[in-house]
Design a protein that fits this description.
alpha+beta, seven-stranded mixed beta sheet
Length: about 140
């Protein structure tokens, strides 16, 4: 059986050395943590999709920076192709519409949460990126 592939963008939103983690509020993975983002619509660039998703989900305007990593992960019902970008908030304060909680965490605290499997898989790359980026 051919599995549907869903392509998404997600943001490692950094502020003052801390990273934003969001907790899913509904659905099969309710209560699990993720990097915020969402599906890429047809004809959208990664940057445009990420800026749109961050405004829709959290009412923040972000500056999309460097691609940290892309990952493919097979969930039971679909294959996820996720592109994770480093972002900074330009305007607004995160407001929760689709998430039940949000936390600003130090990079060392990231591994303490129950992340969605694809986000967990990409976590070592995120932590490495943040440590290297903050050396600059």
């Amino acid at each position: 059986m051919e599995r549907t592939t869903i392509e998404v963008v997600a943001a490692v939103v950094e502020r003052g050395g801390q990273v934003l983690a969001t907790q899913r509020g509904t659905g099969e993975w309710q209560g699990w943590w993720e990097f915020p983002g969402g599906k890429i619509e047809e004809g959208e660039s990664h940057e445009k999709a990420l800026r749109r998703e961050m405004m829709e989900e959290l009412e923040v305007e972000v500056e999309v920076g460097e691609l940290i990593k892309s990952v493919e992960y097979d969930y039971p019902k679909f294959r996820l192709h996720m592109h994770l970008y480093h972002c900074n908030v330009c305007a607004g304060e995160p407001t929760l519409y689709e998430h039940s909680a949000a936390r600003w965490l130090d990079p060392e605290e990231l591994e303490t949460l129950r992340w969605l499997p694809a986000d967990r898989e990409i976590l070592p790359s995120v932590i490495f990126f943040l440590k290297e980026n903050n050396k600059k």
